[in-house]
Structure formats: C-alpha cells, structure tokens
Amino acid sequence: MENIQFIKACDPEIASVIEREYSRQEYGLNLIASENTVSRAVMEAQGSIMTNKYAEGYPSKRYYGGCQYMDEAENLAIERVKKLFGVEYANVQPHSGSQANMAAYFSVLSPGDGILAMDLSHGGHLTHGAGVSFSGRLFNFSHYGLNPETETIDLNQVEDLARANKPKMIVAGASAYPRTLDFKGFSEIAKACGALFLVDMAHIAGLVAAGVHPTPVGYADIITSTTHKTLRGPRGGLILSSAERGKKINSQIFPGIQGGPLMHVVTAKAVAFKEALLPAFTEYQKQVVKNAAVLAKVLMERGYKLVSNGTDNHMVLVDFSGLDITGKDAEERLGQANITVNKNTVPNEKRSPFVTSGVRIGVPLITSRGMKEDAVGDIAGFICDVLDDEANVPKVATKVKELCTHYPLYGDTAC
Ligand code: DSN
C-alpha cells in the first residue's frame, strides 16, 4: 500500500477512500483499454511540491517570477518527448487529450470549418465531432465508419467523403479500434484533397513510441495524445508537430484555452518520457501486443465474436449483437467477478450508448503488472466463464483475487 500517513492523520475519510480504491486495483483485474498504472517515480513527481507553483507561459517566457525550476522540468519533458517520437516540436501542457485536440483544431481552423473524422459509434472519440462535445458544436464534422464486412476502416470511403465534403482537416485516431491505422494512406487522401491531417494517437502512443505500431510522424501535420494510456505516464495530454506550427499551437494552449500549467503533472510527464526511452518500455509494449493477441484468440475459440475478428494492438472489442447479453450486463457481471471492463458500442449498434452490444477489453494495465501470455490465457477463460453463465461469478471472483496476489500492482522497483 502506498504511503498516505499524512492523509490518514488529516483526513481519515479520504484516506479510507484511497485505501479501498487501492484494494480494488490490487485485487482486481483492470481491463479498461485506456487505463494503466504509473511507476512510483511518476507518482512521486505528481505528488511533489511542483504543484505549488504558477507558471503561466512557457520556459523562459513566464508571467510569474520563481519559475527557474519549472523551466528546467518543462524543458526536460519537451526534449524527452521530442526524442521519443522524433519530432521538432512538443507542447506538454495540455491538461487532457480533449484540450490537446481543442488547441490543435483552434491553431489551424476557424469555427464552422469542416473536419472529417471517425464516427464515435464506430470507435471514434467525443472530441472527433460528437454533438455533445465542443468539437461537434464548433466545427462542421462529417464521419467515416467501418466497412460492414471487414469491420476495419475503409480508406475508399474516407476518400469518397473527403472528395464530397472537402474538409479542411482529416482526423485519424480512435478510442475503440483494434486494428493498425494506415497513416500513410490517410495522409495521401488529405494531401490530394488539400486538407490538413491530424492524428490523435492517444490510445496507441506507447505502441508508437516503442515502434510496435507505425508512427504518424512524417505523415501528420499535427499529432495529439494523452499521456496516461499505453504511454504509461500521468493523466494529461500533449501535442507534437513541426517547429513551424509550434508558435500557433503554444498560443492556443496558453492563453487560448488554459491558464497555469499543472507543473506537477508536467514534471511527472518528464519522468514518464524518460522511462519510455528505456529498452524495458519497448519490451513492455511488445508484450502488450502479444497479450492482446492471446486474449483475442481465446475469446474467439470460446465462440465470442470480436469486431474485425481480432486485434493488432492493445485491445479487443467483443460484439454481443444478436445475443441476449448486452454490454451493460457484461460490464456488471464481470465487475462482480473483480474484472473491470467498459461497455462499448459496436458497428451498427442497435442499443443505446447506456446499454450497448459490446465490451472493450484492454491489456495495458495487466501487462504493467507483469502478466504474460499464460496469465492472459487464464483471464480470457475467466471472462468467457462469466459471460457464458452468471452462476460462475463467485468461483471466478475467487480465482481473480488469487491470480492478482501473484502480480502486485507495485513491486520493489522505482520505475
Ligand atoms: N475515455 C477515453 C477512453 O476510454 O478511451 C478516451 O478519452
């Protein structure tokens, strides 16, 4: 258990909340595809005194005195992430992926401009033009989806829509797409149509950093990401681009949409980027892909349909269309067995987003705990047992707790 002696002394109620959340994480299997577990070093940086400082502006150009160490930390974060992805420019201040996307759009587009992106119900993201998001309210989005037969992105459809709608920007990137994204193909369509090309690599950033998914660098005009998914850093966002675009992007983050950066988070990002440059991080990402492949294989062998019939990355999407069980039922039932997943819409979804016909299952966090193919094979079996028959829940819940004791959330290492 992490050290929370001061919280215990000052605020027992919150100490109790943290302790119970710790137990949930330690003794349960967290298979939310967008979550991970940060190193102790990242957590220490995020809980450090760097939180005490206002640092509006950018290194050497701040609106407050006393920022010399803030500058050092932010410069380290910038230089490390530039090296990690091989880019000329990085902004590490976005508080989240949403804010990274908002600033990226604002840096090159005006309200009302057209953007072509992936449909939310086919695996896209809220900030890719959903009506309830700022993106859908401010910009004129059109959407591509999955090919009904292959359940993969169909670049012919993307091209047809781009030619018909003449968007100023094409967005590639998804929050529930288990396949490799063809950045070269997208960029060729964008170029041919005179559109800018933005890649939101939030889900796959760690895979890209490790070279186990193709990089959008060299194809995209702007790249956005979160830092806490496969990249395994603190919760936050980042933007990458060419040096030429940097000035405009910087001014859209601050003062455009944010005030003072969260310097404790920026500092933790610097630590995470250093970790991501280590060989062990590449091995971790390779294991993530191997683990997801085992998960997919066992689920399909046990008769469950996966969107696109498999995975190339860190997640699978199980499709219950035509079955009695819904995504909501599956999420709840698996939760009772100490297995956390999230319900998810599937292509041609017939149920509401609160019910859905699918679940998204990801392996980044369990891979961070050291789980390899054997353990993931067992976990896939547990999931099928629970989905097959609710009566299996108590038995599986016990097995999950037992498995988790062999893979502690935090071992003895700092990084
Ligand atoms: N909510 C994130 C996810 O789960 O994929 C995306 O922002």
Automatic annotation (TrEMBL):
<keyword id="KW-0554">One-carbon metabolism</keyword>
<dbReference type="GO" id="GO:0032259">
    <property type="term" value="P:methylation"/>
</dbReference>
<dbReference type="GO" id="GO:0004372">
    <property type="term" value="F:glycine hydroxymethyltransferase activity"/>
</dbReference>
<dbReference type="InterPro" id="IPR015422">
    <property type="entry name" value="PyrdxlP-dep_Trfase_small"/>
</dbReference>
<dbReference type="GO" id="GO:0019264">
    <property type="term" value="P:glycine biosynthetic process from serine"/>
</dbReference>
<feature type="site" description="Plays an important role in substrate specificity">
    <location>
        <position position="228"/>
    </location>
</feature>
<feature type="binding site">
    <location>
        <position position="120"/>
    </location>
    <ligand>
        <name>(6S)-5,6,7,8-tetrahydrofolate</name>
    </ligand>
</feature>
<keyword id="KW-0028">Amino-acid biosynthesis</keyword>
<feature type="binding site">
    <location>
        <begin position="352"/>
        <end position="354"/>
    </location>
    <ligand>
        <name>(6S)-5,6,7,8-tetrahydrofolate</name>
    </ligand>
</feature>
<dbReference type="InterPro" id="IPR039429">
    <property type="entry name" value="SHMT-like_dom"/>
</dbReference>
<comment type="similarity">
    <text>Belongs to the SHMT family.</text>
</comment>
<dbReference type="GO" id="GO:0005829">
    <property type="term" value="C:cytosol"/>
</dbReference>
<keyword id="KW-0963">Cytoplasm</keyword>
<feature type="binding site">
    <location>
        <begin position="124"/>
        <end position="126"/>
    </location>
    <ligand>
        <name>(6S)-5,6,7,8-tetrahydrofolate</name>
    </ligand>
</feature>
<feature type="modified residue" description="N6-(pyridoxal phosphate)lysine">
    <location>
        <position position="229"/>
    </location>
</feature>
<dbReference type="InterPro" id="IPR001085">
    <property type="entry name" value="Ser_HO-MeTrfase"/>
</dbReference>
<dbReference type="InterPro" id="IPR015421">
    <property type="entry name" value="PyrdxlP-dep_Trfase_major"/>
</dbReference>
<dbReference type="GO" id="GO:0030170">
    <property type="term" value="F:pyridoxal phosphate binding"/>
</dbReference>
<dbReference type="InterPro" id="IPR049943">
    <property type="entry name" value="Ser_HO-MeTrfase-like"/>
</dbReference>
<dbReference type="GO" id="GO:0035999">
    <property type="term" value="P:tetrahydrofolate interconversion"/>
</dbReference>
<keyword id="KW-0808">Transferase</keyword>
<dbReference type="GO" id="GO:0008168">
    <property type="term" value="F:methyltransferase activity"/>
</dbReference>
<protein>
    <recommendedName>
        <fullName>Serine hydroxymethyltransferase</fullName>
        <ecNumber>2.1.2.1</ecNumber>
    </recommendedName>
</protein>
<dbReference type="InterPro" id="IPR019798">
    <property type="entry name" value="Ser_HO-MeTrfase_PLP_BS"/>
</dbReference>
<dbReference type="InterPro" id="IPR015424">
    <property type="entry name" value="PyrdxlP-dep_Trfase"/>
</dbReference>
<comment type="subunit">
    <text>Homodimer.</text>
</comment>
<comment type="function">
    <text>Catalyzes the reversible interconversion of serine and glycine with tetrahydrofolate (THF) serving as the one-carbon carrier. This reaction serves as the major source of one-carbon groups required for the biosynthesis of purines, thymidylate, methionine, and other important biomolecules. Also exhibits THF-independent aldolase activity toward beta-hydroxyamino acids, producing glycine and aldehydes, via a retro-aldol mechanism.</text>
</comment>
<keyword id="KW-0663">Pyridoxal phosphate</keyword>
<comment type="pathway">
    <text>Amino-acid biosynthesis; glycine biosynthesis; glycine from L-serine: step 1/1.</text>
</comment>
<comment type="pathway">
    <text>One-carbon metabolism; tetrahydrofolate interconversion.</text>
</comment>
<dbReference type="Pfam" id="PF00464">
    <property type="entry name" value="SHMT"/>
</dbReference>
<feature type="domain" description="Serine hydroxymethyltransferase-like">
    <location>
        <begin position="8"/>
        <end position="383"/>
    </location>
</feature>
<keyword id="KW-0489">Methyltransferase</keyword>
